Structure formats: C-alpha cells, structure tokens
Amino acid sequence: MGSKDFNSIYFSIVMACYNVEDYVWEAIDSVINQKFDFKNHVEIILVDDGSFDKTSDICKEYVEKYPDNIKYFYKENGGQASARNFGIKHVAGKYVNFLDADDKLMEDTLANVFDFFEENYSEIDVVSVPMYFFERQTGDHPLNYKFEETKVVDLNVQWNYPQLATNSAFIKKEVLNDFQFDTNLISSEDAIMVNKLLLEKKAYGVVENGGLCYRKRFDETSTIDTSKLDKRFYLGRLNGFFKELVDYSLNKVGYVPNFIQYVIVYDIKWMLMSEERFDVLNDEELIEFNNGVNYVFKYINDEVIDCHLKKDPWKIRKCIYELKYGESEILQKDDDIVLCTNNVILDELSIHRFYLDIIEIKNNYLFISGFLKSYFKSSDVDIILVSKSSNGEEIFSSKTFNYFNRKESKISESYINFDFKVPLSINEEYEFNIQVKSKEFGDSFELPISFLNYARLSEVSNYAVWDNYMIHFKNNTIFIMQYSYSKMFKWEIRILLVILRHIPYNWFSTLFIRFIYLILFPFFKDKKIWMFMDRRESADDNAEHLYRYCSNIDDGINKYFTLFKDSKDFKRLSSSLKNIISFYSIKQRILYLFSDMIISSHPDEFVLNPFWGKNSKLYSGLINSKKIFLQHGITKDNVSLWLRKYDKNLDMLVTVSEMEAQSFLEYEYNYDKDVIKVLGFPRFDDLTDASDKKQILIMPTWRRSIDHLKNEQIIKSLYFQKMNSLFNNERFIKLAQDNDYDIIIKPHPKIIDIINLFDTNDYVYIDKTSGYQDLFNNSSLLITDYSSVAFDFAYIKKPVIYYQYADDYHFEETFFDYETMGFGEVISDEDELINLVDKYIINDCEMKEEYKNRVDNFYKFKDKNNCKRVYEEIKKL
After folding, report:
1. Are 589 and 606 found together in one domain?
2. Does residue 419 belong to any structural domain of this protein?
C-alpha cells in the first residue's frame, strides 16, 4: 500500500439516499468494513434527497457512531444528480466515489484502488473496478471483460473499454471542480460526466481485485427499472447525453473519438431496444427521436457499430443501421436474398432455420406448426410446405398469426409463425419439405429444421407412430407412411445405437424405457389408456372428480390416476379407487408413453410429463397422447403468454361459460374453435350449499409484485399490510364472535410460505389442510380479491365480497368486469368491508337477487352433469 499521512482523508464516498431504509445500512457497512483504515482515511457523505421512510433515522445512527467519518445532509427531493452535486461540495478526500445507497463495495476495493492510483497518479484521473450483480440478477456485469488484468487503459487503442458508471469508479477530487452531474437527465448523468472527464487524458485505470456489488432489486423500483416509462428517458437522454457528448467531443478535440462512439453505441442500444417508447412518445416526438438518433449516428463509424454488435444477442443491428442510413431493401445477391441498407448487409435469408413446435397426425391430417426468426417480415416472405407423393407435387400455404411473445418486431428480429394442416391418405407415402419463399423475387430456400423441446419429434428420437401412420424425419425431410412394426423396429435399433455411441445425460434410463416400449408396442398399440392427474403432489381438483365419475364405467378404456406416492392424497384415493399409480414409477412412465389421453387440471409439460427435465428429447417421438385441460380455475384474465398453443398444444380445453370460451378465441392463444368446449367443471358437480358451520372464508390470491422479495420487504408491501390488517381487525372478530361465526383463512400456496410473517390471534383460524371443496360447501360467506375461487363459491349461490383495496393485480387484460359481472360487491375500504359483512350476517348470508341473476347468466350449466358431458366429449376425440 502506498504511503499515507495518518490523518489524511483519502476516500470520500458520496451516497445519494432516497427511501432506502432496506438497503442503506448494507452500503454504509460495506465502506466501514473495508480492508483500509476507515477511521483515519475514509469519509462517507450521506445526502438524503427528501426520503420519507426511515432512511434519515438509519443515517443519523451511523453519524452518532462515527461522527468524525460520516456526515449527513438533508435536502428537498431533486433527484440523484442534484444529491451527488450537493455531496461534492462537502468532500474532503483525495479520491471520490459515488456509491449508490443500495449497492455495496467488496471489502478489498479501497486498498487496491489506493495502491493503483498512487502508482499511476499522473497518468489517470479515474480508476474503475468490476461490477457484480446480486439479488434479482446475479453474475458478472457484461463489461467485466475489461478487468482481466490491472492496468492503465489507453482509450486511443482500447476504445472498446467503455466506462459509464460512477458508482464503480473512483475520481480525483481535483478534477471534479470542473464537472458536475446533469440534473436534467433521467439516468446516464454519471455516464456523460465521466466520459467528458475521460476526454481530458483519454486513459483510465482498471483494477481487477475488489469491485462493486450492484443490486438488481426484486421489486424493480430502482431508477433504471422505472425510467423507461418517462419521456425524459428518450428525448431527454438523446439530447442531454448522446447529442451533448457528440457536440462536446467536437468542440473539445475536433472529432468524436472511437471510445466515445463506443460508449454511445453501448448505451443507446438499451434505449432503442425499449418498445415502450412507441407508447410513451407521440408521433411528433417519435420523429424528433429518430432524427436525433440519425444525427448521433452520423458520427459513429460502422467499424465501431460492428465491433460492439459482433455477436448481437440483442438483435438490434438492423434498427441501428436503418436509423443511420435509412430503410433497408431486399436484394438478390449471390444466389441468396439479402436485406441491406447503404451496402451494409443486415440479413441473409439462407442462413436461418425453421423451429418446429408441433408435428403430429390426427384424424388423417398432418399438423405442423413452428416459426422462422429473422429480420425479414411476413410482408417479405412466405412459408410454404412442399408435398411429394405418387400424385405429384403440391404446395401448401401457411396460416400466419401472432403469439403475445412471438410476433413481428419494430426494433429486433421478427417471428413469422406458421401453421399447416394437410390431408393424408393411409395408402399413400409422402415427403414434405418446409421452405421460405421471397415474395418479391420468388426464390425459395429449404432451411434446416430444429425441433423444440415440446415437439413430438426430435433430431435423435426421429420417428413417431400416430394411429396407423408413421412419421420419420431424415435429411431435413419429413416422411409419412403407413405403420409397419418392422420399420419401427429398425429405426428404434438405430436410435438405441446412437444413444449408446454418444452416452447422453440419462442414457441408461432412456435405453431401458425405450427397449421396454419397443417390446410392448405391438401389444399396447391399440389399447385405450387414459391417464388422469391434478398436480404431482396433490389431487382434489377437476381430474380427481372426473376420475371418480368414470373410473368404474365399463367402456373398454383402461383408466389410471397418478400422483406422488408420498402425497397426502395418495393413500386417500387408493383406499376408495382402483388404478392409483405412483408418479414416476416404472409403471407410470411406461403407461404414459402408451396413453391416448392425458387428462389434467394442469397443462404444463413439467407437471404432466415424467420425462421432462430428464433429457426429454430422447423420448419425444414416443409420446403421442392427446392433452385434455380441465383447468384449475376459470380463466377470466388474458393468460395467453402462458396457455398458448405452441407449447401446450391442447386437444380440449374445458370452460364453464360462453364468455370464457370466447376469450380464448379473442386473445392470442391460437387454438382452433373446436378445441374450446363449454361443458362445466367436473368438480362443480360436488358443490353443495351445506353452510352448516357458520363460517366466513377469506381467500386472497397472490401478487407477483412481491415474488422474490425479502421478508422485511414483504411486510412493508401494501398487500401484506392490508391482508394483515383484515386478518386481525378487532371489529371484524367481535362481529363474528357475537354472531357465532368462525373466520377461516385458506392461504394461497405462496402465502403459506410466509404465513409466519402475519400477526395471529386466538380467533381467526389459518387452515392449511382442508380441501377447497369442503370449505366452499360449509362456508357461508367468501371474502376474496381477484381469486378465481369466487366462481366456485358463487356457483352454489353463496355471497361473495371482492375486497380490492388497490388496482395491484398482475393481470391487466380480462373479459370479466367485477363491477358489472361480479357475483358480489367490490369494496376498497376495510371499514366498509366489515359493514357489509355485518349486513350479510343479519340477512343469514343470503346472496342478493342481483348477484343470483348474474350467476344464472354466467354459467351455461348448473345441472350437476358436468362430469358426464366432459367424459362424453373426451370419448369423441
């Protein structure tokens, strides 16, 4: 370590603080606990930027403990930049760092920075340390490649070593007299300041040891997380950062150095990748934005752009070059179709591949579904299927459509989804090839095919038997022919040899299962097998109720119900029902491969498929069951991001209402109309209005906004505070006691994990064990918020109250309007809620006529024949 004066302050850590009571103590402690003499050589300047939580109290406690080292200042809220500028006025140290109040310094950071700065003092004004993410995101910062060794970086040579942050940088105090943070910017105020400073010497130091721990908050409330919905993030940063940095460079040195260009490309891409700008900015502002970006890119060399976008995982290259040179055009070039602008080739059609989600044969039709991902759009190309048979060649056009997360993009690569439905004849053999065809030039390209995990075929498991057809994938061609066990046997032996040759993960189990499958296939091929399940670890949902109905029907169908053997429901079901089998047993896995129907209240492969996560592509071609989704609850919200066709591929989806069924056709699920059936939930058949226990049931749903939060953060959330208050409301409890009502809380599964955080009392009972249906049947009144359990409860015409204290539910799109369609009052105030409960108790918890009429209008069937209808529809498949 360099020589030090005993009482000299070498480091001033300026910390802008705003409502950081959960984090600031960690930041302060990380400085105090450095392997550097804190008491004699370090000061912390805490600038409270108008906090209204306990930040001030925490800071003052540290000042009392370290009065000679820690200074605290309070100012009216003005933003991080103004707080940092305020702090600069009070620094006494030789080197200054601007640590964010929710980040931490690694313990050897100051010691390593001090030694390096002292040794290279005249060459540099800035020293940088690595950044490591923690909390919501973990791992290295993308720019940590700069820190392979401790050295002075010559930015004229290593111009691709950008420095954008001041929380990971240490700056000489003497140079800060000429620079300040721009208070008009929303984010990037540190990037422009530090890069103006770097223009002075065009060099800075990098120290490989030590570093900054950069917090990515679970609640996504940091400045970077929230700024994309602010116009200043776009127009303000464009003018105040990117254009300003270009103009400053031109005035300072007469040109824009490559390292400044690289900083601009690196940082501007995050702004360009934000599709929120198309909603945040109006048409005039978008034109202003595009013109401003075009001005900036006039000073950015193509070499710099290509250096940064060499691999381009963000797929932003086309957007950048079009903003620089103008719209791209499609050309023929060297037997290819290319997309280019100003002679810069942005994409080539022939380099891509098709990805298949679905390949199957049902009812004498071949179904193929997948996508092409490229910079080309559906207006540029067609996806076609070329069929060859004894009848000659035939070309089929694709149906085009979008999924919520797979669509054409304004800024990145576009998804072109395709869907083919081709009639087959059992006596014919076919060859199919998928091609992409240029609309302008007519050129077609047969691209390589890859199978995604949930496709019923893979590059290894490359054949499948569908009824009396066989699919075989070879040499990028799909062959269809009549079933032949001898051909199947030959292909299977080849697959087994490939597995033996390459020894992939889970190879031994795969060989065993596939060999058993091969031997049993002639005997099981025509057997009818239905497999039922709810969750792997539990039953008591639609699948169990349907299984109880049809398990004893003598229809020649072998029916099984599966769940984990150590589940609490396994013994219960085994005592009264036959063919209850343990999930993931050898028997269950073999039967799964031969099942005609997988019937469940959950549609995810990771729930249903015993081979999922165990190198499932090795089994892909063996699975050809139809998937029946009975649903876990009524789907009132748009969940197309989850329940889409491409990875669920449902053959039947059971609904209870015409309105619910219609919503599946309006949103981007992309199921055919005949997949959606209004039949009623099987479990509804066993709902009865017992109401003999006089109990009030409380069942709030979860909030994704508090997923992954720490316990101390959860208890500060509005959700927790409102629920905790209701659970312990003294007037509510007294009202129930006076009228001999029990209060039962049935926690959401995720609430159970944090149930100990809630206050408890002697009267309110938290029920973790009772079945949902028992609670519905025996309760008199339900209080919920947005949970679909209200549909079960209202089905038997019992009163429901929706306690929606705030608009904080994570699903925004819904066909269900609580005010006009709900089965009870919508209440936002806790006192009003208790008043309403009082009125219902006085009226013996009778549902009001208005809401009874809504129940009658919503549910198509209330005849307790739902199981019968569902069973009969499944048989038709």
Report:
1. yes
2. yes
With respect to residue 454, please indicate whether it lies within any of the assigned structural domains: yes
Given 224, 251, 279, the domain boundary residue is 224
CA–CA dist 98, 166 (Å, integer): 6
Closest CA to 874 of 569, 462, 437, 557: 557
Residue 766 corresponds to which tokens in the numbers above? 């938290």
| Alpha helix ranges (H) inside 93-180 | 109-119, 173-176
Alpha helices in 311-447 (DSSP H): 317-325
Tokens at 44, concatenated? 């912390």
Asked if 605 and 614 count as a contact pair (C-beta separation under 8 A), the reply is no
| Same domain (yes/no): 650, 693 | no
pLDDT in tens, 99-119: 999 999 999 999 999 999 999
Interval 391-404: pLDDT, tens: 999 999 998 899 99
On whether the CB atoms of residues 102 and 167 are closer than 8 A, the answer is no
pLDDT for residue 6 is more than 70: no
Give the closest residue to 870 by CA, choosing from 706, 679, 724, 722.
Answer: 679
**Structural domain harbouring 511:** 484-526
Tokens of residue 209, six digits:
């040891």
Specify whether the CB–CB gap between 369 and 396 falls below 8 A.
no
pTM, rounded to two decimals = 0.88
Q: For the segment 528-573, what is each residue's pLDDT rounded down to a tens digit?
A: 999 999 999 999 999 999 999 999 899 999 999 999 999 999 999 9
**Which residues, including other chains, have CB under 8 Å from residue 852's CB and lie 6 or more apart?**
797
What's the rounded Cα separation, in Å, for the pair 415 and 374? 7
The residues, any chain, with a CB within 8 Å of residue 709's CB and separated by 6 or more, are: 218, 219, 717
Long-range contacts formed by 579-587: CB under 8 A, 24+ apart: 579/551, 583/533, 583/536, 583/610, 584/610
